[in-house]
Amino acid sequence: MSYIHGYSDREGRRLQDQAATLADLLHGGLSFAPGARVLEAGCGVGAQTVELARRSPRAHFVSVDVSAASLAEAEAATRRAGLANVEFGQADLFALPFAPASFDVAFVCFVLEHLADPVGALAALGRAVKPGGEIVVIEGDHGSTLFHPESPFARRAIQAQVDLQAAAGGDANIGRRLYPLLREAGFDDVSVEPRFVYVDGANPAWAKGFTLNTYTAMIAGVRERALAAELMTAIDFDRGIADLARCAETDGVFCYTFFRGGATIPG
Fold first, then answer.
1. By CB count within 10 A, which of 64, 82, 100, 198 is most buried?
2. pLDDT tens, 129-155?
3. What CATH number belongs to 9-264?
4. Residue ranges of domains in the chain
């Protein structure tokens, strides 16, 4: 897995801002039964972990990640939130240290987009879940990005991130593929639904929380990689970031689509 956004403190703050802003949009209607054992794969700094554990306080979460530094931040985040229903462990998604059928649910959010073999990852998660159990997957899709005022510089900056992620073996447009990926992994009862973000001047909190602190900050975070790969000049990239930020003003509009998929583990 190659995480092109890096592991800086700034990226950690962006992930926390993203989780707080999108909590209801991504997790609305999602809860797990009392006593359920839930495997969260690729928990990172715990941005989604906190939301999961808050919403299902009587479920037990096992959250894993390959990065020890990220896990330390995740543990700190759950302590600050006063959550006692999460345990953490360092693990590779493709070599999970659990016996087959150890969990009732697997949850993965914003991870498949970074993997060269998302079907293999889903299959590995499926093996860790009991037959009849559930898998929940959330991903975004950069190809769904719409904004006003339109800007060719902003479009190129977004495409630079898409190209960098592709070069690293991932897919920043993976949201649209969730249904076929879940089917290919062999799951039953596959369903996928879009979760739309729409921000205009009537939503200043979302303009700050999503347009600026989540999306624009994410694209800005690949600046040095984009320049090193000669995908854009510094002047053009910075213009693109400024134009994305412009969409957070009172006459700006920003739209994006996330996808949440669910499926059943075959018996």
1. 64
2. 999 999 999 999 999 999 999 999 999
3. 3.40.50.150
4. 9-264
